[in-house]
Amino acid sequence: MKPVSQDGPRSLTRRGLLSGAVGLAGAAATAAKADSLLDVPPRGPGAPLSARSERSKYVQIARIPESTPGKRPVDPSEAINSKAPIDKLVGQITPADLHYERSHSGVPDIDPAQHRLLVHGQVKKPLVFTMADLRAMPSVSRIAFLECTGNGWENWKEAPPDLTVQNTHGLISTNEWTGVPLSYLIDLVGVDRRSTWMLAEGGDGSAVARSIPLTDEIIAEGILAYGQNGEPLRPAHGFPLRLFLPGFEGNLNIKWLRRLKFGDRPFMTRWETARYTQLQADGKARQFQLHQDVNSVITRPSGMMQIKPGYHRICGLAWSGHGRITRVELSTDGARTWRDATIVGVALPKAQTRFEADWVWDGKPTRIVSRSTDEKHNVQPDRASLIARTGTNALFHYNAQQTWAIDETGKVRNVLA
Ligand SMILES: Nc1nc2c(c(=O)[nH]1)N[C@H]1C(S)=C(S)[C@@H](COP(=O)(O)O)O[C@H]1N2
Ligand SMILES: [Mo]
Question: Where is the Oxidoreductase molybdopterin-binding domain (predicted)?
Answer without folding.
Answer: 104-271
